[in-house]
Amino acid sequence: MDGIDSLMPYLVHLVVLYVSVVFIYLLYKYKSSDGGATRNLPPRRKGLPYIGETLDYVLASRWGTPEKFITDRTTKYSPDVFRTSLLGEDMAIFCGAAEESTKLRAYLPPFLKPESLQHYIPVMDEMAKEHLNQHWSPYNGVQVFPLSKKYTFALACRLFMSVTDPDEIENFAKPFALATAGLISVPIDLPGTTFNRAVKAGRQIRQQLLALITKKKNEILEKRKTVASDLVDCMLMDGMTEVEIGNKIVGFFIASHDTTSTAITFIVSYLSDHPEVYNRVLEANGGIEKQRGRVIEMGRYTEDEVDVVRGMRSNEAFWTVHTTNKNPKYFPDPERFDPSRFEGNGPAPYTFVPFGGGPRMCPGKEYARLEILTFIHNLITSFKWAKINPQEKISYIPSPIPEEGLPISIQPMPN
Ligand code: HEM
């Protein structure tokens, strides 16, 4: 009894503490679910202090249902827009075609202009052929996802910084993989954590980049170069500092790498699941010359398409591309793989937005299209392929990834 008596004051404190925490939490929840009515803003739930609804958002992606986070809230609040709190920011989530827009001038660095892009086609073509010959054999168990990454990374090294030596590419690729793994990790900077490895890898990449950029700067000065050979040259000639360029290049690598390699991977996957579409794509691939003509066409389209989705007062705005692109209102039976739905006049403005919209719209979209088209053109005219595991699962971290890397068996195309 004595023991329990001496513990009583602690127990009482513990109970009081527990009740207070629960009370404060309920009060916070009650206050934060104001529905936005007071300021005529879209309805919202704020979630937990600081992290808001970040955890629900990340978990929905991890469980392979990234749209669930959105549909749960659109069902509850409004089909077009609601508010939430992600990563400490109060933001509005747009779930349909953006309505409010303003014309702005788009910024396209010289490197991504249509005229420049045309010069990359032979390089893309040559590198795609080289990669397919070197790495897509011996025709069994070829892992599409890692190999697509290898190709898009090597191409970026070549076009962004004129790096072609395989060892040097590998020296960038290794720390880059560690750094990107840390982008979505628990931010605990202790030895052994993913985050810690990413921070170290990030430092290493910056050092390597700084050395490379300084070397290229000296070359420009010594040789009095006036024509840029790559993206780094473009930026140096534009008067940017070495550190600024390093940061931009890291950003370009992050923006261009997983996006294009994931797209290539899923094109290979869908084509193998849908022979009727595969046959049409094969038929359509008359030659790389066709794509050459399209660059100019696509370039004009880019410069015109410069509308902006406006943020809401002080709130951050987050337009959910995923739910917009899968909205049955614009795309009947959205889960069905049916590229023919884009034929004719194509989708209504702002309903199909894989590259975003407005002044922040992906500046690399034509580069990405060319890179993907060139690679698929070479693949489909060289090989026939079949999935080794048609039931392979897809993980979302946060972009979709086939869990086994999409192994396929391939055979050379009969002549
Ligand atoms: C399939 C491939 C790609 C997809 C789906 C994609 C998609 C996107 C999206 C949705 C955005 C955000 C747009 C917004 O906020 O409205 C973006 C931004 C960006 N993308 Fe891409 N992208 C791809 C490839 C590329 C490539 C190849 C490059 C570079 C050569 C690139 C460079 C960038 C940059 C620099 C930004 C940031 C723009 C800014 O913050 O103003 N992307 N991309």
From TrEMBL:
Report a single Gene Ontology molecular function.
Answer: oxidoreductase activity, acting on paired donors, with incorporation or reduction of molecular oxygen
**Under the cellular component aspect of Gene Ontology, which terms does the record hold?**
membrane
Q: Which Gene3D superfamilies is this protein grouped with?
A: Cytochrome P450
What membrane topology is given? Single-pass membrane protein
Subcellular location as annotated: Membrane
Q: Which cofactors does the annotated protein need, by name?
A: heme
**Per the UniProt entry, what is one GO biological process?**
sterol metabolic process
Does the UniProt entry include the keyword DNA damage?
no
Bilayer-spanning residue ranges: 7-28
Key words of the record: Heme, Iron, Membrane, Metal-binding, Monooxygenase, Oxidoreductase, Transmembrane, Transmembrane helix
Q: Where does heme bind?
A: 362
Name the family the entry cites.
Belongs to the cytochrome P450 family.
Name of the molecule in the record: Major facilitator superfamily protein isoform 1
State the organism of origin. Answer: Hibiscus syriacus (Rose of Sharon)
